[in-house]
Structures are given as structure tokens and as C-alpha cells.
Amino acid sequence: MIIALKRSSRFRNRPQKSNEKNTPDSRSVTTRLSQNSRLNSRELQVIKVVILVSAVFVVCNAPAMIASILRQTVPGLSNVGTYRLSQDVLLIFVEVFQLLNCTLNIVVYLKYNTLYRTTFLDLFGKRSK
């Protein structure tokens, strides 16, 4: 997604072909191109949100992956095995992190997305009539 954003930014900021060369207008186009070649603030914000949501996803789902690996490698770690109480604690831990993932996604989108925030507040917040 980040690569696609960079490509679209380059496409939008591409200079238009002009028949006139070395005119004051063409120099200003070059100056504007160099200023616009960097990502604009909205695109940077989208990149930040994507990275943040991805990081939250990886961190919050790491316990589930670790639990899955442990269930495959530790013979007594099951519902009926020797470590069944440890299995129950592990499942609670995994579920807490998965719920935390959902909650943090809502918080991230509320902070960074104005349309999401407005809609959310219209649905669940105080409505002014």
C-alpha cells in the first residue's frame, strides 16, 4: 500500500509537457515539482495509520501464534492433557490480546480519521439537535 501511495503521488506531481523552454513559468513548475515530490501530509498520515494498525495487529496476535506453536510442541498442553490449566490460562491471555487488538484499532481510527470520528460520534456520541 505504501508503494502504491508513492507511485500515485509521483504520477500526480509529474510535470506537464510544455513547448516553451526556460521561461519563468517553466522554472516555477520545476520548483513546484521539487516541493511536491515529497509526500503530502495526508499521504504521510495514511502511511502512519497503516504502519500503526499493522504493528498493533502483529503485537496483539503474537500470543496466539506462540500459543499455537506451544500446543504443537508441548505434548500435554491441551484441554485434556497434563497442562490443561496452563492451556486455560493461555487461552484467556490470547483472547485478551485479541480483544485489545480490536479496541486499539477503534482508538487508532478515531484519532487519525476525521470521517470515522464524525460517523462514530454521530452513532454513539451525543447528538446535537
Unreliable residue runs = none
Cα gyration radius (Å): 25 Å
Helical segment tally? 5
Distance between the termini: 40 Å
- The H-and-E topology, N to C, reads as HHHHH
Q: Strand percentage, roughly?
A: under 5%
Question: What would you call the structural class?
Answer: mainly alpha
- On the 0-100 scale, what is the average pLDDT? 79
> Biggest sheet, open or closed, and with what strands and sense?
none
Q: Oligomer, anyone?
A: single chain
The outline comes out as elongated
* Strand segment count: 0
Helix percentage: over 70%
Membrane topology: Multi-pass membrane protein
Main location: membrane
GO molecular function: G protein-coupled receptor activity
Region (Disordered): 12-32
Describe the structure.
Helix 3 packs antiparallel against helix 4 (about 85-110). The radius of gyration is 25 Å and the shape is elongated. The chain has five helices and no strands. Helices cover about 75% and strands about 0% of the residues. The longest helix is centred in the middle third of the chain and has 33 residues, at about 40-75. About 0% of the residues are buried. The chain is an all-alpha fold. This is G-protein coupled receptors family 1 profile domain-containing protein. One of its GO terms (cellular component) is membrane. One of its GO terms (molecular function) is G protein-coupled receptor activity.
